[in-house]
Amino acid sequence: MTAIVSIHSYRGGTGKSNTTANLALLIAREGKRVAVLDTDLQSPGVHVVFGIDSKRITHTLTDFVLGKCAVEEAAYDMGEELDLGDGGGAVYLLPSSMRIESIMQIIDQGYDVGKLNAHFATLSDTLDLDLLLVDTHPGLNRETMLTTAISDVLVILIRPDSQDFHGTAVMVELAGRLHVPNVWMLANKVVKRLDPVDVRKKIKGAFGYDVVGVLPLDEDMASLGSRGLFAQKYPNHPITQELTSVAKRLAAITDEVGGDDGD
Ligand SMILES: Nc1ncnc2c1ncn2[C@@H]1O[C@H](COP(=O)(O)OP(=O)(O)O)[C@@H](O)[C@H]1O
Ligand SMILES: [Mg+2]
């Protein structure tokens, strides 16, 4: 079995896409085979963080949900770009479409998330995956809810901001009702004057779930501006170290979920 991990936040701009892309790289460095799905079909972005050459992209996840291609046709091996070598790890990116017509169609009609969920298994069999990382559309919406419902881990990104806290409370309650086996909180963009230990306590106290990391609001991350993978550019940075610890926990989850090894 392949572990399904959704990365979500109540509000946009919290850092989902950058976190997802960096976690994919760091999990692959643990020797795991990972696919990243950009299910933010209305406002795609993770492909930019990966820096994939747009000329390579002939099929997208959007094409798949619109019935125009098979899911595996939308998967691009990022091994070379990420310099993964032969440690056994792999990252496949399933970008969504930047074509205005496709985005409008999705906004207008939604998409059949049941079909997407049903094809996770096909994708993981074809690519022999350990883990599916799902970069989501922010907030509460039907598609994200249904993907969350089949997730082994829901990582909720949160900023220390009152709007975030209130919205996240609703999402956390929903995750409880959906019986997601693991709900992890990850604080991002935490201003340096706040003590990370206090932030951790506050989030744990407010939501009751594990806080797996507290990431600072960081000048280097902001300057990078999604033009590449932070963990590649700053391998020894505290943010990379914190994300590495989350990646190791996720890699361990694949061993639990995988259990019997193989597929
Ligand atoms: N810890 C951080 N410190 C500073 N800027 C950050 C941090 N995390 C993310 N960002 C920036 O915030 C913006 C939004 O990030 P993104 O990953 O696209 O969020 P989302 O996918 O949740 O909308 C990007 O410009 C990114 O570089
Ligand atoms: Mg995003």
What does this structure look like?
The protein has 263 residues and is α/β, with parallel strands linked by helices. The chain is built from eleven helices and eight strands. It has helices at 16-28, 46-50, 61-65, 100-109, 113-127, 142-149, 162-177, 196-207, 219-224, 230-233, 238-258, and strands spanning 3-9, 33-38, 76-77, 90-94, 131-135, 153-158, 182-190, 210-216. It has an eight-stranded mixed β-sheet, with helices on both faces. Helix 7 links the parallel strand 6 (153-158) and strand 7. Helix 1 (16-28) crosses helix 11. It is globular and about 50 Å long. The protein starts with a strand and ends in a 5-residue tail after the last helix. The mean pLDDT is 94. The structure holds adenosine-5'-diphosphate and magnesium ion (MG). Residues 9, 12-18, 45, 188-189, 215, 217-218, 221-222, 225-226 line the site of adenosine-5'-diphosphate (ADP).
* Main β sheet profile: 8 strands, mixed
Q: Which descriptor suits the 3D outline?
A: globular
Low-confidence region ranges: none
Number of self-contained structural domains: 1
Order of strands across the widest beta sheet?
A: 3-4-2-5-1-6-7-8
State the gist of this model.
This protein is an alpha/beta fold and 263 residues long.
Structural topology:
Layout: E1 3-9, H1 16-28, E2 33-38, H2 46-50, H3 61-65, E3 76-77, E4 90-94, H4 100-109, H5 113-127, E5 131-135, H6 142-149, E6 153-158, H7 162-177, E7 182-190, H8 196-207, E8 210-216, H9 219-224, H10 230-233, H11 238-258
Parallel strand pairs: 1-5, 1-6, 2-4, 2-5, 6-7, 7-8
Antiparallel strand pairs: 3-4
Helix pairs in contact: 1-11
The structure holds adenosine-5'-diphosphate and magnesium ion.
Residues 16-17, 40, 45, 135 line the site of magnesium ion.
